[in-house]
Amino acid sequence: MAMNDKKNPSSQSDLWLYNTMSRKKELFKPKVPGKVGMYVCGVTAYDLSHIGHARVYVSFDVLYRYLKHLEYEVCYVRNFTDVDDKIIARAKQLGEDPLSLSRRYCEEFHKDMTFLRCLPPSVEPRVSDHMPQIISMIIQILENGCAYIVDGDVYFSVDKSPEYGRLSGRKSEDNRAGERVAVDSRKKNPADFALWKSSKEGETYWDSPWGPGRPGWHIECSAMSAAYLGYSFDIHGGGMDLVFPHHENEIAQSCAACSSSNISYWLHNGFVTIDSEKMSKSLGNFFTIRQVIELYHPLALRLFLIGTHYRSPINYSDLQLESASDRIYYIYQTLQDCVDFLKQQNIELQEKTIPGDILNCINKFQNDFVSAMSNDLHTSDVLAALYDPMRIINDLLNTRKGKKQALRAESIAALEKSIKHVLTILGLMPSSYSEALQELKQKALHRLKLTEDEILQKIEERTSARNNKDYERSDAIRKELAAKGIALMDNPDGTTWKPALPPVPSP
Ligand SMILES: [Zn+2]
């Protein structure tokens, strides 16, 4: 009954992914059975990453985890752009060596990925370590007649690429020079883009057959994907903003260097918006991952990000993060209650004794999980499907005291196991439920600018009011805390608290 027991091995291929190239969902079929090559464009390491980046890498981490769950052997390549104009400009500002600046931000990025529970990719190539591969690819493109040299710069000739525009759907007349390429009258076609840029006085440079310089942005991904995955591989992904010009240019370069170059699936995630505007560094309307996880638990942020289908836009707001924190608290509390309950039971669990209705619930949950994930990774549907088994767990824990103890324990154990399995694939499993609950409480206190002592004092005040039958006072304290976002729970052994969504004020 475990989800990874494959009754039907052919189910491994039942994954439908939306391919930006064909503009439709396609059944995923790897080029080599059982193996997947996946390249995802990484960050330009010159500053802390924002929530838009978090969304890209969480989305592809879910895909990576799901492919591994389907027992594919995945080679996941995610690069670091550590040579770039922005890095050079920032380093100059700070009086720092560009490579040491980018090394610092690569480390910061790794910390963010650890917070967000993103698994490390198989390889994380950096531009500065791949100059020979990049230069030899440019030589190949020049030899094939698809690029030209102007004063130490090398440009790709878009006119030599008959398929140019296929991915983005742009016709050549609406091709403008890419954002990162300054308009240059030396270009044969304004849409031509730099493969190699000659260095200015005092800038970091690498030697090349065309003189000292550095690679253009797009060529690095063509060269590094080819270095680790070959010219023909399965999945290439990134944020939707990379479709044009970055990925369009990558295709043109790779095909110009090697005619058999072929990527089966192009996957792109949607933007994070703030007030319906795309969150981006250049627009200045962004929150860094660090800023957000200062206030909210990183797994609440992850839940928020996967709570919407990866291709849809997602609107960031405090309310959304509050609600994600509340949802994840409920999930972990339910599972912690299971663990506590089972610890008290001390019995040998046997699957056979699970009653039919519980088994049905588990099977339905597993089927919902598989059908949602195989339909272009509808993680939001998986999260919605979690509520039935959790409701039943809470039911079993709280209201079925009369039922046979053993049966109850078996059922709770089986439900917890199946939820845990799904949370693991979604990357939402904390190292311990109780630790995560404690952290969620601490974050809530931090947001509310309260200390736990202040709450405990209120609880004490309320208890003595209740003891004195001053119910008006005890009610007022409960309401006062509720209005702030603190809920009180009265148990036989006393009153405890948890963070809760503050009530919506009545109009
Ligand atoms: Zn790239």
TrEMBL record:
<dbReference type="InterPro" id="IPR015273">
    <property type="entry name" value="Cys-tRNA-synt_Ia_DALR"/>
</dbReference>
<keyword id="KW-0150">Chloroplast</keyword>
<dbReference type="GO" id="GO:0004817">
    <property type="term" value="F:cysteine-tRNA ligase activity"/>
</dbReference>
<dbReference type="InterPro" id="IPR015803">
    <property type="entry name" value="Cys-tRNA-ligase"/>
</dbReference>
<dbReference type="GO" id="GO:0009507">
    <property type="term" value="C:chloroplast"/>
</dbReference>
<keyword id="KW-0067">ATP-binding</keyword>
<protein>
    <recommendedName>
        <fullName>cysteine--tRNA ligase</fullName>
        <ecNumber>6.1.1.16</ecNumber>
    </recommendedName>
</protein>
<keyword id="KW-0934">Plastid</keyword>
<keyword id="KW-0862">Zinc</keyword>
<dbReference type="Pfam" id="PF01406">
    <property type="entry name" value="tRNA-synt_1e"/>
</dbReference>
<keyword id="KW-0648">Protein biosynthesis</keyword>
<dbReference type="InterPro" id="IPR024909">
    <property type="entry name" value="Cys-tRNA/MSH_ligase"/>
</dbReference>
<keyword id="KW-0547">Nucleotide-binding</keyword>
<dbReference type="GO" id="GO:0010197">
    <property type="term" value="P:polar nucleus fusion"/>
</dbReference>
<keyword id="KW-0479">Metal-binding</keyword>
<dbReference type="InterPro" id="IPR014729">
    <property type="entry name" value="Rossmann-like_a/b/a_fold"/>
</dbReference>
<dbReference type="InterPro" id="IPR009080">
    <property type="entry name" value="tRNAsynth_Ia_anticodon-bd"/>
</dbReference>
<dbReference type="GO" id="GO:0005524">
    <property type="term" value="F:ATP binding"/>
</dbReference>
<keyword id="KW-0030">Aminoacyl-tRNA synthetase</keyword>
<dbReference type="Pfam" id="PF09190">
    <property type="entry name" value="DALR_2"/>
</dbReference>
<dbReference type="GO" id="GO:0005739">
    <property type="term" value="C:mitochondrion"/>
</dbReference>
<dbReference type="GO" id="GO:0046872">
    <property type="term" value="F:metal ion binding"/>
</dbReference>
<dbReference type="GO" id="GO:0043067">
    <property type="term" value="P:regulation of programmed cell death"/>
</dbReference>
<dbReference type="InterPro" id="IPR032678">
    <property type="entry name" value="tRNA-synt_1_cat_dom"/>
</dbReference>
<comment type="similarity">
    <text>Belongs to the class-I aminoacyl-tRNA synthetase family.</text>
</comment>
<feature type="domain" description="Cysteinyl-tRNA synthetase class Ia DALR">
    <location>
        <begin position="368"/>
        <end position="437"/>
    </location>
</feature>
<keyword id="KW-0436">Ligase</keyword>
<dbReference type="GO" id="GO:0006423">
    <property type="term" value="P:cysteinyl-tRNA aminoacylation"/>
</dbReference>
<keyword id="KW-0809">Transit peptide</keyword>
<keyword id="KW-0496">Mitochondrion</keyword>
<dbReference type="GO" id="GO:0042407">
    <property type="term" value="P:cristae formation"/>
</dbReference>
